[in-house]
Amino acid sequence: MNATSTMLSTAISDYLTTTPQEQVHAGFLAYIATLSEVSTVAPGMAKAIVQELDDQRSNLKLIASENYCSLATQLAMGNLLTDKYAEGYAGHRFYAGCDNVDEIERYGSEQAKQLFGCAHAYLQPHSGADANLIAFWAILNERVQVPALEELGTANPAALSDEDWSTIRHKVGNQRLLGMDYYSGGHLTHGYRHNVSAQMFDSHTYSVNKETGLLDYDAIEQQAQEVKPLILLAGYSSYPRSIDCRRMREIADKVGAVFMVDMAHFAGLVAGKIFKGDVNHPQDPSRTQGRAGAMHRGIRRRG
Hints:
The strands form 2 sheets. Strands 3-9-8-7-6-4-5 form a 7-stranded mixed sheet, with helices on both faces. The protein has a two-stranded antiparallel sheet with strand order 1-2. By secondary structure, the chain is an alpha/beta fold. It contains 11 helices and 9 strands. The protein has 2 domains: 3-59, no CATH class; 118-297, Aspartate Aminotransferase, domain 2 (3-Layer(aba) Sandwich). The radius of gyration is 23 Å and the shape is globular.
């Protein structure tokens, strides 16, 4: 037994010995026991976890993508469910034996729908970037690939000739995206050329007004009319203002675009009902859900 493991085992014993039974905190005990178990295999990892706890208690995090999750959430992430491989989604897996995972995923989806007041919720992506990419592919599939397949009289891409499949791939890969400029506060996944999103789309960006530093919705509308994007994307990483989602949805409708909101960086404000931008207008919002994973929610259902 290494020094770290010995210290943690002693901590458990001391805690149980000195604490009245009715005051023993099960969560704290589970936390210490977990660290003790980890330390028997990787003491350096246990030390890093303890250091992270100290860092979080000593510093104020100002990264919107991070979170302070509950102890229950932390413990739920560290159990035998990590053994599972549950490809697909609840009720539609590629493998058997996923009933318990399905139950948990359905529970999480229902909680998300209640929290954000939406019709659908998808919790699988592990980051906001992944959630955006999945949303992009879902829109491309529904708005471009499915109609193209229907024109060819099939729903199965595998049934197409190489020539027909190449035509569809060309259509899917040349759609236009109009999102907020990275240097105005937009996110990497909104068409920044160093990101895969700029390779998925013919990407165009709108900027803030150079005088006011604010979004100019009339200018965005004019640009959208010129670009005619498949997706009009709102959301940001570092724009310290709310977004007029109603106005953006109106612009999207005028040019026949899908309006998508990446609300990863202000989802907590939406959940707390204090965000002033009214995100009930997009067809397709997406968000990050702390370190536990990512959630994509929207009126338009993704695959």
